[in-house]
Design brief:
The structure is a homodimer.
Chain A (H helix, E strand, L loop, with lengths): L7 E2 L6 E4 L2 E7 L4 E7 L4 E5 L4 E8 L2 E5 L2 E5 L3 E5 L5 E5 L4 E8 L3 H8 L1
Antiparallel strand pairs in A: 2-3, 3-4, 4-11, 5-10, 6-9, 6-11, 7-8, 7-10
Chain lengths: ~120, ~120
């Protein structure tokens, strides 16, 4: 079904390359940002932390997550809550993965990357 | 893939019946709440508003959304941003639908319904 005026659909929201094998789409309001990441097989995102609360949902693929000092093997339907300041990163296993990262507050640092 | 300790998976997160034909699952942090709603065909959720910002993603099904005074016909992959105070409701069309509602701040009013 096509998107109607005023709405968005992930199939048509522009994707921005934000790293090797990492494409990011985003939608946001004033308090919440939703980023949909499509990550190629065998890609590792560098571990990092930020003061934004993050909830990640795995839409498809298998991903090894680093959360603090522990590793979690995650797949479709998994949901991860990362409190502010949590050290985290991920490695996508043998097939492309799609993750939905939800942030609050909005990741203003992402605007520049998408608009530049 | 099964859920690992410390994570959640939508396949095992308890669902609570919160209305005729409406089941709600939820995961939350301090700032963000994610509710996954499974809504039977032909069910209408009463139009309402709240001061929480809401972003809704349609996982599957077809849904007619009321947003303010306009109707939007939505389907899989659609994303709707509802600023605080926006009047909204929905009617699920001819098959069961799954929606992911993201709120900030957390809907504390939902805790009682899930814990009672």
């Amino acid at each position: 079904m096509s998107t109607v005026p005023g709405g968005w659909n992930w199939s048509t929201i522009p994707a921005r390359r934000v790293g090797d094998g990492v494409m990011r789409q985003m939608v946001h309001g004033e308090r919440v940002m939703v980023c949909r990441l499509t990550i190629a097989a065998h890609v590792t995102t560098e571990a990092h932390r930020h003061e934004h609360e993050q909830i990640t949902m795995i839409e498809r693929g298998r991903v090894r997550f680093l959360v603090g000092s522990e590793e979690r093997l995650c797949g479709s339907g998994d949901v991860i809550v990362l409190p502010p300041g949590t050290w985290h990163g991920c490695t996508v296993l043998d097939e492309e993965a799609v993750l939905v990262d939800i942030f609050s507050p909005v990741r203003e640092d992402f605007f520049e990357a998408h608009h530049s």
